[in-house]
Amino acid sequence: MDGHLLEVKGLSITFTQYERGLRRVSLPVIRDLGVTVDRGEMVAVIGSSGSGKSLLAHAVMGILPYNASAEGEIRYQGEILTEKRKKALRGRELVLVPQSVSYLDPLMRVGEQVKNGRKGRKWEEACRRVLGSYGLGPETESLYPFQLSGGMTRRVLISTAVMENPRLVIADEPTPGLHPEAAKRVLGHFREMTEAGAGVLLITHDLNLALQTADRVVVLYAGTAVEETDSRAFCREETLYHPYTRALYRAMPEHGFKSEPGSQPYVKELPSGCPYRPRCAMAGPECAGPVPLRKTDRGWVRCVRKEGEA
Amino acid sequence: MRMTNRRRTMAVWMILTVLLLVLVTAAGWHFREAASLTDFSRKNLAPCPAYPFGTDFMGRDMFLRTLAGLSSSIRLGVITAAVSAVIAFFMGLAAAVLGRTADAVIGGLIDLIMGIPHILLLILISYACGKGFWGVTIGISLTHWTSLARLIRGEVLQLKESTYVKIASRLGHGKLKTAFAHMTPHLLPQFVTGLVLMFPHAILHEASVTFLGFGLPPEEPAVGIILSASMKCLVMGKWCQALFPGLLLAGAVLLFHFLGQGLLLLWDPENAHR
Amino acid sequence: MENAKWIGMQLLRMAVLLAAVTVTVFVLLSLSPIDPLTTNVGQTALGSMSGEQVERLKEYWGVGTPAAARFLGWARDFLRGDMGISLLYRRPVAQVIGERFFNSVWLMIWAWLLSGFMGFGLGILAGRKRGGTADRLVTGYCLLTASTPAFWIAMVLLMIFAVWLKWLPIGLAVPIGTAADEVGLGDRIYHMILPALALSLTGISSVALHTREKLAAVMESDYVLFARARGESERSILVRHGLKNIALPAMTLQFASVSEIFGGSVLVEQVFSYPGLGQAAVTAGLGSDVPLLMGITVITAAVVFGGNTAANILYGLIDPRMRKGRKKG
């Protein structure tokens, strides 16, 4: 047993589709992403909603749709995660907590789905225990997905993961649609899993919630990973290195809600070099070229500027 | 890795298909006189190089007759499908825009039409119109609009939710005017695809109704008439007059199917990545 | 209680539609410019008759009576179970329909079951892997049969199996010269194989294509993606999630396809001279036998609406979303 629990290096995912008429386009949804997750650790990948970051989860699980393709290296416990290994591990050591009720079979009762087809007293008890630990009574088992509330759905989806004693949990947007209290509780459940020794990769758009629970965060801008840092780095602006991460810091409610002009470019219209260049106050001509990855005291940053230099 | 652009290839094939169908229609129209020419010196000939489909008991060239029949089938199909699609457009629009009563009435009408087996309804309408050309034409035009109307109604209901339509109606434009000005461009792809997909049904139903004796008159060169006449010789083992015209008809209908599927593929947002 | 009320509404709706069909058909038939006298008696025969004879014939064919009065008379009789006298067969319409209905029902049930099961099976085969070999073959077949007139497929089968191979009879429900009640089951089936086959071959395509579409949509759904992520095998996914989610829509469609099967039977019966309802409808239409045509249309519409209503009720009772939704609402 050596190396990280999960290590993703240089992962790029492209999505092919046709636009009106006859033109075919390739969308680089995620570009050159690196992230590691260790045992007992919770790492959040932050990206704006609708940017296709779910595909990161699908790539690790080996369930990408046929029109998406991934490049790069994914290692699990130090060894390359081949399609064959993904197949053997997923649903056992490697589990996904999907984002919405549409991931539950509409015609199957909840209990049946949590047990995932397994019969016998042992599994029935396990199912009851797991649901119960999230405050869902035995009556939940006989409900159909359409009868669940948003919060219940989330807890049922988490239950499907906990049933398996996973080592790596990938949570794909587990909080949207929940009021802040409930969202916090849901993330608390993931924190419990890390305390039990599992690694959690949280994919979300909600920076505030992620910072409250995750150990480290990776910030995506228009599909490109711009910085990896400690959650505590977000206590002060000076400990953040990428201009975009700093902009995020300033946009947080407790730091004045200051939002930057402009918006993230659509993946189809990315500028060369640093994607944040058009909005960056510090941008210079060298930002149009290739941007190297630099180590920092807390992780890494993808910016040509030295720390703190204006 | 180089991938061919399947859509562009598809578009080229579709244009060729349209050209072929136009060619067949024009050829059939051109030979319509020759197709009815009787010549008792050459009656009941088997297929040969001069008469690829043989000749019938009155010495008519079966190949030309089939071609002329195909041409009239296609022309009739285009007319009836167009009328039906226009009816569908207005019915769908009215059901979605003019309120609940209109919706209920049109919905009931659709259920009513779908409740009588299609062929039987065609027989009834054709009978009501005194059979013949007008019988089939009116019959097919009045019965094929139902599913497209439902589709358009659904589409319009969805569009109604979109903000710019809401704004337009708040600005005081009338219901129908708003519907027309703002929705028509969005409905066009649905409409055209629905229209093309209607051709096969229209053509096949025309042939069927004519085959049963409620359609085009017996002296006309029509595929239904040719096949109905061939029934008599079929039992005696003369199969070529039944086989070839049927195959050609199926071929023409397949081409229309191909066109419709192609349009669906190019226009439907659900197929964006295929 | 909720269910009973809801089923009652469904049945009421069916009755209203049926009444509307009756009126529509009657209006259509009375609109016709076709003169039943010239069609059935012939211009020359009419010319040679005395005025009194012509009057009697006119009365027999219902010429000259106002349409509304005729409809009311017809409706009153119909509710008492009397559908009038068939003008061509010179027997009560109910009797003619009863006989023909029996023949047709045999044919249609076989075709309905055959096309339903085969269509469902082929649809699963095709939809399991969109774009695969099985999918190409099945969709190709469906496209081909959807592009061919049903009567022509019947003619081709007749050509191959009856004329060329001589395995099966050319037509009719029973051997020629045998009274209907002396015919054994074997003979009936023997004479029914070809028509039933022709009818099913053309009926498969809609069920198959529909099942394929639905299954493909299910296989690309989020919940199947999640099942994959949980390590379920493709086989288990198909059985546990796929079949369950497509069985209901397929069943609904099959019930709704009664109308299509009947339409096909009109053509197929004509080709095989099979003495069923469809053939009677054609004969009645060609010979202006208004009471018979009227009777056949109303009866078939009743069967079709029955099928649709059965499908609706089935769907409402089985699908948990509909079931619970109704209780709430």
Walk me through what this model shows.
The complex is a heterotrimer of chains A (310), B (274) and C (329). Chain A has 310 residues and is of the alpha/beta class. Chain A has helices spanning 54-61, 83-89, 110-115, 121-133, 150-162, 180-195, 207-213, 243-251; strands at residues 6-18, 24-37, 42-46, 68-76, 79-80, 94-97, 168-172, 199-204, 216-221, 224-230, 294-295, 300-301. Chain A has 2 domains: 6-221, P-loop containing nucleotide triphosphate hydrolases (Rossmann fold); 244-310, no CATH class. Chain A contains 8 helices and 12 strands. In chain A, strand 11 (294-295) and strand 12 form a beta hairpin. The longest helix of chain A is centred in the middle third of the chain and has 16 residues, at 180-195. Chain B has a single domain, classed as Orthogonal Bundle (MetI-like fold), CATH 1.10.3720.10. Chain B is built from 11 helices and no strands. In chain B, helix 1 (6-30) crosses helix 11. The radius of gyration of chain B is 22 Å and the shape is elongated. The model of chain B has no long low-confidence stretch (mean pLDDT 81). Chain C has 329 residues and is mainly α. Chain C has one domain (93-328): Orthogonal Bundle (MetI-like fold). Helix content of chain C is 78%, strand content 0%. In chain C, helix 6 crosses helix 9 (185-219) and helix 6 packs across helix 14. The radius of gyration of chain C is 24 Å and the shape is globular. Chain C starts with a helix and ends with a helix.
